[in-house]
Request: fold
Amino acid sequence: MLLFFLLWRIPVVQFNFGGERYYLKETDFTLQWIHSVEKEQWLEFYERDGDSLLLAETKFKTYGAGVPSDGKIIPSKDGYVHMEIGRLFKEMNLTVSQNAQTTIKTANKEIPLYDYTEDYEMVTITIEFIDLWDYMRGNKL
Reply:
């Protein structure tokens, strides 16, 4: 049984900031923030895809700075523009701030990253395969 805990590796979404690593075991999450120019909520929907993050879709209210130009528009009636993206990332670097209210959402929880970081701190997000033992005793978001 001990060998199982020492050798079994599980995929996690790793958030690295403040000299610490935090793990999210869920296979998908939403990144939500307030856009700095439009002052509107913006959402990006990510999925774990092997050892990469897949930006599956984005959702925003107004076109402006930073809006993707090559995504497929998905019809919707909720006041948002929905856009299919389908872009893979090995690593994502994100600046978190109180103004943007950067938040991670999963099916079961909402994690206000701006409460866990310094204002304008950089957060690196990757997919990592870690020992089950490390996950059991590690920092989970």
Summary: The CA atoms of residues 73 and 83 lie 4 Å apart.
